[in-house]
Structures are given as C-alpha cells and as structure tokens.
Design brief:
By secondary structure, this protein is α+β, with helices and mostly antiparallel strands. The chain has two domains: 33 residues; 164 residues, Cyclophilin (Beta Barrel). It has three helices and ten strands, in the order H-E-E-H-E-E-E-E-E-H-E-E-E. The strands form two sheets. The protein has an eight-stranded antiparallel beta sheet. A two-stranded antiparallel sheet has the order 8-9. The longest helix has 31 residues. It is globular and about 40 Å long. The relative contact order is 0.23. The N terminus is likely disordered.
Amino acid sequence: MKYVRNTNWYLAAVVMAVVILTIGCRADRKSVKGRKMVKLETAKGSIVIEVNETAAPVTVANFLRYVEEDFYDGVIFHRVIPGFMIQTGGFTPDMKQKTTHEPIVNEAANGLKNTRGTIAMARTSNPNSATSQFFINQVDNHYLDYIEGKNPGYAVFGKVVEGMDVVETIAQVKTATNGLHQNVPVQPVIIKSAKVTSGK
C-alpha cells in the first residue's frame, strides 16, 4: 500500500505540473494577442518583428505608416556589416533613395537597448533626423544606446521574434562599395513585402 500511495502522489504531482504549464501557455498566448507584428518577406526568407508602441509610440507610428503605404516593398538591405547590423528602408536595387515623410523625434531615451535582434531607427548625426531607414542589430551594440548628456543614441522600437537565422544569412552576404555607399550587398537583398500580420 505504501508503494501505491507514493505512486498516486507522484501522478498527482505530474498532473498538477501539466495543468500549471497549460495555464502558463494559455497566458502567454493571451499576452501576445494584440501586439503588432510586421512580417518582412525578403529574398533570403521571412523576418517577423514585434513593435513596441508603449516604449516608442512616435517611432512605431512612423514605421507602421511606411508599412501601410507599401513603402518598403522593393527596397533593399543597402548596408550590411557582419558582427554589427543590417540596414534597410530607403534605397531601391539601383541605389536610388526614396522620398520620405518628415523626420521624427528621437525616442532613444525610452529604456530599450540596442541588443541582438532589436530593431532601431537609422539617422544622420542629427538625433532627430530619422525617417524611413532602420536596422536590425546582429549583436549587442550598447554604444548605440542613449546616455543622458553624452550620447543621443539610436531609438529601439521593436525586436525580431522570428527569423534571426535570416538576419544572420543577410549579414554574411558579399558586399562592396557602390558609388558613395559602402557595405552594399553585391547581389541585392530585396524586401519583397512588409505587412502588419497581427494586432490590427
């Protein structure tokens, strides 16, 4: 009987663990519902990005505006540096720069960091000059983070939730100098489409 009682206790514990895990999984699914995801269909595969409207409302609204206008369809990853990041959002395969909306305010002080897999806005030396171009951090790039009074930083507004393998593949393509632009893929890596896939 003692053996039977111990076995029953063990089975009860297993059942309870399964219940807890199931509830946890359901909670995770519920928490994901409503978040906005953007899927980039590239020549190398799909990249799914989860944007963070809470931390970067202006930046996300700007990004989604370009997505909804199909602005990113047909642009290339025009700056690729392995061990650093891959950049896109502004040039066609013939390296013609697209016309954009007005620049936005820099939200780099939102607490989000330029860690591996995060997506951030590209800009000039003017902190408030970002328009349509963005980059995906291939590694942790903390020197791009905001530091009050010292570094205006680069505004992170989301993260890759699927397709980091695609990011890695793009980061390894052969590059060369094209006119005034360095680190341009020799064979264009095109974004075929960019679409909001959830959280509408």
